[in-house]
Amino acid sequence: MKFGGTSMAGTERIRRVANIVRKQAAGGNEVAVVVSAMAGETDRLVNFCREANALYDPAEYDVVVASGEQVTSGLLALTLQSLGAKARSWLGWQLPVRTIEAHAKARIADIDGDELTASMEAGEIAVIPGFQGLSDDGRITTLGRGGSDTSAVAVAAAVGADRCDIYTDVDGVYTTDPRIVAKARKLKAVTYEEMLELASVGAKVLQTRSVGLAMKEGVRVQVLSSFVGDDAVPADELPGTMIVSEEEMNELVEKGLVERQHVTGIAHDKNEAKVILTRVPDKPGAVAHIFEPLAKASINVDMIIQNVGRDKGETDVTFTVPQADLARAQALLEDKRDDIGYNRLITDSKIAKISVVGVGMKSHAGVAATMFQALADRGINIQAITTSEIKVSVMIDEDETELAVRVLHTAYGLDAADEAA
Ligand code: ADP
Ligand code: ASP
Ligand code: MG
User: Fold this and answer.
1) Which residue's CA is the nearest one to ligand 2's atom 8?
2) Which residues form the ACT domain (predicted)?
């Protein structure tokens, strides 16, 4: 069971979580719980790091930001004990959760589940802080924002759990962010492939890596709310959204339990920025010159557009990078100006990426055309387009994000019926 920040925000809410956990254990299950820091706490800690040193050392940043989860794991263990349950906390370095790669965005390499399993078999509820791990050289690491989801899936895989229930502040995965579209519909099930794509284009309900890991390890994941009823419904009734394989999805559709749509969901992402380089030489190697320094600096480039060269053998190149990396990208490109040979460097952070996702696209034409027409009808200008087998993304002005999401939700027939909304 994993509980997110809103579920852990304060002693009253932690008591509610403890009750949900205790019920699950009382039902004869062995339970491991992964917790997030209290809502807002990680942001607060990140700000302290920035204030202390704008160019902070990521290793020390990890020491600071990992503390939020240490607090909530101890508090949940204490609360469970106060309710008469046996419980103990296991910090990342105690299990340990071994991680590789960079601080602040580490990846879980493995978790030794033996001690954990033994303690659970002995009737103890295991409480594990999410988000944190231990590097090769013995230092505390964190997994990137939203990383507790990945911790939960990794623990589930390590102990061979029957299921990984991700409790959050919404009761499942919706056709789009229910905070933006009131008529968003809850999905009974969504495939790993679609959830992976939705998460990677901005549906923050699950961290992208958690979905990839669940897919690889075959972990059964359910997303559900910890805020249902007085005491949340026991998860055994599967009240949330199940993440399922393609085969399971086909079975659900055949049984008439799930309706297949061409588009499963719509997501938005306001965290990218656009970079334009004008009058780049239109010759072999020019684009390589642009992206090589960015790759070396681990800056992820997403949408890329290069126009067909016009006269004088020159062309414009446009692409997006995470907003957080924009200043670094800009500095690197200015540094390489002579090598690349561009004329002007223009940036814009006021953009958003809107994506529609669905496996139905593989076999159905016209999904992109519907998107372009619906946006055109509302006068929303498209600045760039990218597609994959099950996704179409467009870049638009950030101010038009909410409108675009609503319009597309309606255009694809995803709105909940009025009486249900
Ligand atoms: P937690 O703190 O529990 O990890 P998050 O804030 O990370 O919770 O994720 C839950 C939020 O994800 C919801 O409150 C919702 O606003 C947002 N969200 C975005 N897209 C979706 C979607 N398609 N379905 C459900 N929630 C979504
Ligand atoms: N507390 C961390 C964050 O806010 C990890 C998580 O909650 O998943 O990003
Ligand atoms: Mg989250």
Assistant:
1) 146
2) 275-347, 356-421
Which of 131, 169, 196, 205 for mutating ligand 1's site (highest number of atoms within 8 Å of CB)? 205
Ligand 1: which residue has its CA nearest to atom 11?
205
What are 85's two structure tokens? 């349950």
- Nearest CA among 412, 381, 410, 6 for reference residue 180: 410
pLDDT digits (tens, 9 = 90+) for 200-213: 999 999 999 999 99
The pLDDT-based confidence of 417 (bands split at 50, 70, 90) is: confident
> Do 189 and 345 contact (CB within 8 A), yes or no?
no
Q: For residue 414, what are its two tokens?
A: 């995803």
If you ran DSSP here, which 8-state letter would residue 174 be given? B
What does the alpha-carbon distance between residue 32 and residue 402 come to, in Å, rounded to a whole number? 38
User: Which residues form ligand 1's pocket by a CB distance below 6 Å?
Assistant: 4-6, 36, 146, 168-170, 173-174, 176-179, 203-205, 265
Cβ of 392 less than 6 Å from ligand 2 = no
Q: Specify the ligand 2 atom closest to the Cα of 68.
A: 1
pLDDT of residue 324 exceeding 90: no
105 lines ligand 2 (CB under 6 A): no
Find the mean pLDDT for residues 158-183.
96
Check residue 101 and give its pLDDT.
84
Would you state the pLDDT for residue 421? 42
Q: Is 36 in the pocket of ligand 2 (CB under 6 A)?
A: yes
What is the tens place of the pLDDT at every residue in 353-396? Answer: 999 999 989 888 899 999 999 999 999 999 999 999 999 999 99
CA 318 to centroid of ligand 1, rounded, Å? 30
Select from 301, 235, 193, 200 the least CA-distant residue to 27. 235
Q: What is the DSSP letter of 420?
A: G
pTM of full prediction above 0.90: yes
